[in-house]
Amino acid sequence: MAALAQEQMDTMDAIVNQHFVYEANDDVEGVLSSLTDDADHEVIPSPMGPIRGHEDIRAYYEMLFPCLRDGTVTPVRRLYGEDFIVDESIWRGELADGHVLLIDGKAGPIDLRLLHIFNLRDGKISGEQVWVDLALVQRNLGCTIA
Question: Does domain 6-140 have CATH number 3.10.450.50?
Answer without folding.
Answer: yes
